[in-house]
Design brief:
The complex is a heterodimer. In chain A, 35% of the residues lie in helices and 34% in strands. Chain B has a domain of 117 residues. Helix content of chain B is 16%, strand content 28%. In chain B, 10% of the residues are buried. The chains are: A alpha+beta, B alpha+beta.
């Protein structure tokens, strides 16, 4: 049995003990269970992966790559039509230089720094289901000083981690858990979703539930827009039918109406921008890190 | 009918004030608006730093607190946020009737149903994940409008960089 499995069994036993002890009148701050959280703040954590043991000094944030990518995509926008979320994907997965060229008319120094750091953590779309430990979220700063298997490493950034992995600390942790979560505590107030401040914690990251999607919002008069598109399509189809029936007059009239409506709806003119608004791309949803844990609340 | 119900309500408020188990400040607030008109409130959600709930004369308040197995009884309940910068959220969506004092709109008379008082359940750990988008500023255009290389003309180019073992640069001002 490997070490991670042993720790998993230990966490299960501790959570079971807390559950059985939940009615005890003795004062206790023990808490544990399985939670979905967006980010966990840890101080001086130790990490156990299937391959290494890593120690980090100072405060760090444990977050899924998917959640971090969402945060960076939503952190900046270009005026007018926002192209920044596409630039993020282009930068990470395609040609980084070409993607940055799309921002060449903007003062993008900070955005470029965040992009470069993000691209060090994520290489392929499936990396969204990994987790990372970073020194700072805004601006994004990677962990560059840590100890791997007893060897001090400086200057090389700590990359993303495959799951499962164990993170523990005796020097404080904080996280907000969301539904669905199942947390039990001994003599403690525990709700379906709440903020937790821990003195010590042992957590086993099991998976990432990524339900983030990229949406286009900010449109106005959506009903009118849809109606114009549908009427335009009907006119063009009816026009095509008229020419088959050799009704030239109807063909011309329907063609003009259909084309005019399509032009008004889709041509990016000033009127179009004023009437329908400018589309805004945003990433919504969350990429929760799902972990089981136990420890003592502060 | 409404008049009678209003009279009953005023009577009820007078009785509440006479009870010794509620705070002086609460009595003062109630006294200030006991003779004023109470109107039905279409709003059932409120936000406050402090919420005081006082039981009517006939029954104690029945109080449940999430996470506690037992329920509680009491004459006056006070919930307040002191360190937490966020306000408490008060919901009376389940109540049969919510009347608001014309004199002091923060005094409400609630009949039946359940009022919930909740607060922020999140810390600031995730604040850096949710910052609002910063609009990138457009750089001023300083690049040349026209670049001619021998007979070829290029317009609106990017910055031009020249290198070579030896060359002259002539400026026209």
């Amino acid at each position: 049995m490997n070490e991670i499995q042993e720790i998993s069994n230990l966490v299960d036993k501790e959570v079971e003990a807390i559950t059985l002890d939940a009615t005890s009148d003795l004062p206790s701050r023990k808490i544990g269970g399985k939670v979905s959280a967006r980010v966990v703040k840890l101080r001086n954590p130790k990490i156990i992966t299937t391959e290494n043991k890593i120690e980090i000094f100072g405060p760090v944030f444990l977050v899924s790559v998917g959640e971090l990518k969402k945060a960076i995509k939503n952190r900046y926008k270009t005026p007018g039509q926002n192209i920044f979320p596409q630039v993020v994907d282009d930068f990470i997965f395609n040609n980084g230089k070409e993607a940055l060229n799309r921002l060449r008319t903007f003062d993008s120094t900070q955005a470029a720094s965040d992009l470069v750091n993000l691209s060090r953590l994520v290489k392929v779309p499936s990396d969204s289901e990994k987790v990372v430990l970073v020194s700072k979220i805004k601006p994004l700063e990677l962990v560059t000083e840590y100890i791997v298997d007893g060897k001090h490493t400086s200057g090389t950034f700590l990359g993303s981690f495959d799951l499962r992995l164990v993170v523990m600390t005796d020097e404080g942790a904080q996280f907000d858990f969301e539904t669905p979560s199942h947390v039990v505590g001994t003599n403690q107030r525990v709700e379906e979703s709440m903020a937790i401040n821990m003195n010590n914690i042992m957590l086993l990251v099991e998976r990432v539930d990524d339900n983030t999607i990229q949406i286009t919002g900010g449109l106005e008069h959506v009903g009118w827009g849809n109606a114009m598109a549908i009427v335009s399509l009907i006119c063009l189809l009816a026009g095509a039918f008229s020419i088959i029936e050799k009704r030239l007059f109807f063909f011309i009239v329907l063609l003009i109406i259909g084309a005019a409506l399509a032009v008004a709806r889709y041509l990016p003119t000033n009127w179009n921008k004023n009437f329908f608004g400018i589309t805004e791309i945003q990433v919504v949803g969350n990429a929760f890190t799902v972990f089981k844990f136990y420890g003592e609340m502060a | 009918m409404m008049r009678e119900s209003e009279r009953n309500m005023q009577q009820e408020l007078m009785e509440i004030m006479k009870q010794g188990q509620i705070g002086q400040e609460t009595v003062r607030r109630l006294a200030a608006c006991v003779d004023s008109e109470f109107k039905s409130s279409p709003i059932r959600y409120f936000s406050a730093r402090k919420v005081i709930v006082v039981a009517g004369t006939s029954e104690f308040l029945s109080i449940r607190i999430s996470g506690f197995g037992e329920s509680f009884k009491g004459r006056q309940l006070t919930c307040s946020n002191i360190d937490n910068p966020e306000n408490l959220e008060v919901s009376m969506a389940e109540s049969e009737m919510v009347l608001q004092s014309a004199q002091d709109p923060e005094v409400l008379y609630v009949r039946c149903g359940e009022t919930s008082i909740t607060g922020l359940k999140r810390s600031d750990v995730a604040k850096d994940l949710d910052t609002s988008a910063e609009v990138l500023k457009i750089l001023p255009r300083k690049d040349p409008d026209i670049v001619q290389i021998d007979n070829k003309v290029y317009r609106q180019t990017g910055t031009v960089y020249i290198s070579g073992p030896f060359y002259a640069v002539i400026l026209e001002r």
